[in-house]
Amino acid sequence: MPVTENLPTEYHQQDTDYYCGAACAQMVLHSIGAGHLSQDDLYNDNHSHSVTEPGWYTAPDGLGWTLNNRKPAAFTNYFVLFEPGDEETISRKIVWTIHHYAVAPIAMVYGWAHWIVVKGFEASAAPTSSGDNSYTITGFFINNPWPPTPGPLPPPHSTGDICGSGGIYGIVNEHISYATWQGTYMTGIPSGHWAGKFVALCDPEPPAKRSGIQSEPKRYADGERIIDKKMAVEFAMRAMEENGLRNHDHLRNMITDVNPGDPVLVHRLDKPNEFYYIIPMQGREKNTVSLVNVDARFGNYMQSAFAGDEKGRISFKPLTKDAILKLLGRRVIMNNKRQVISIYPEAICIYSSLVWRPCRESLSPYLPFHMVTVGPHQIFIRVDGRVFTDLHTDGKGI
Fold first, then answer.
1. Taking CA atoms, which of 98, 113, 114, 205 is between 20 and 30 Å from 359?
2. Which of 319, 30, 16 is nearest to 160 (CA)?
C-alpha cells in the first residue's frame, strides 16, 4: 500500500552562502530537542572537525561529529556517516531513518556542493527493516536551507520566524520526484577522499545490501522538441493529480483550487540537452502558492515547492528587459574587478530562456538566472535581481 511520511522538521535558512551544513544541523538538532543552536557555533564545529580532507566548508566527517557532540542527552540514538558507492543504498537508508527513527537525515547533494535535510518520503510501502529492498521509492520531501538569510546580519532563528516564507527567505515545503532525486540531487561526490560515494548522516543500523525495485518516470512526449507552454501547464496539472500532491494534509487546502500562471522555460547550463518549465500556481488569495517543475522535453513531473499555507506566497517573477537593463546600468565590473565593460542596450543579447545550474549563486532550481551576453562576456541576473559576473561551482559543503 502506498505510504507517505513527512516529519515536522522546522525550516531555517543558512546564515551565509557556505553555512548549509550549519543550517541543516540546526534544523535536525532542534527537531530532537536541542533548541535553536547558533549557526556560527555549529559551523565552527563542522569546519574545525572536518579533518579527513582539506578544502571543505562542512565535510561529511565534520557534520557527523557536530550532530553527535551537540545532540541532547535525552536523545539516546546517534548519527552515523554512511557513504555507499551507489545511490539506491543511501536512498533506502534515508527512508528507513525517517520511518523507524522519526529523525530527518542530512544528505549531500549536487555532487559535493550542498547539504539538505530530507524530512519525508513517498514509497509503494513502508520498509519493514533497514535491509528491506522490496518497496519502490517515488519521492522525497526536503528542507533546502538555501538561499542565505538576507541582510548584513542574520536574524536570530526561532519558531515562527520569517524563514521559509518564500523568495529570498527560502521555501518551506519542497517535494522531489525520485527520478529528479537521482538525476539532479543525489549524484555522488565527484573526486577526492569520498570520490564515487553517496553520502548522508543517518541512524546507525546497516543499510540494505542488495538492489530492489525502482520506479520509472512517466514520460508524455518523445523529447524531440521542447513542448509548448500549454502542454507544460497540462502536464503540471496532471502531475499534481498523479503524484497525489493534493492528498497530503499539509498541502490539500493550499492547492485544491489553484490556477496555473505563465510557464517559464529554464535551460540547464551543466546539462546542455536538459530543459525544464517552472509553472507558478495561484491559490484562492491570488498569491503564487506553488511552483511545479516539469521536464520541457518529455513532460514528466520533476519537483514542486509550496508556501507554508494558503495565505502565504512564493516570490517568483522573471524580469523584463527594461528591469534587466536597469539592473545592469551603464557599466559592469567583470572578472573580480579586473575589467570594466560598458552596457549599450542595442549591443546586448538576452538569452531566450532562463538558465540554471547548481552553483554558489543559486542552489535552488526555483531561482534561475537571466543570461546576458555582452560581446565575449556573460552576465547572470538572478530572478530576484542579484547580478553576477561568474557562477562558481567549486564550493564543497556550501
1. 98
2. 30
Taken as a whole, the chain contains a residue count of 398
pTM of the model: 0.95
Nearest-angstrom CA–CA distance, 216 and 138: 9
Residue 169, CA atoms < 13 Å, CB-side half-sphere: 18
- Which whole-number Å values give the CA distances from 324 to 187, 277, 330, 340, 379, in the listed order? 33, 21, 12, 18, 11
State the Cα–Cα distance between residues 326 and 314, nearest whole angstrom. 24
Exposure string of 306-344, with b = 16+ CB inside 10 Å and e = fewer, is bbbebebbbbbebbeeeebbebbeeebebeeeeeebeee
Contact 172, 66 (CB under 8 A): no
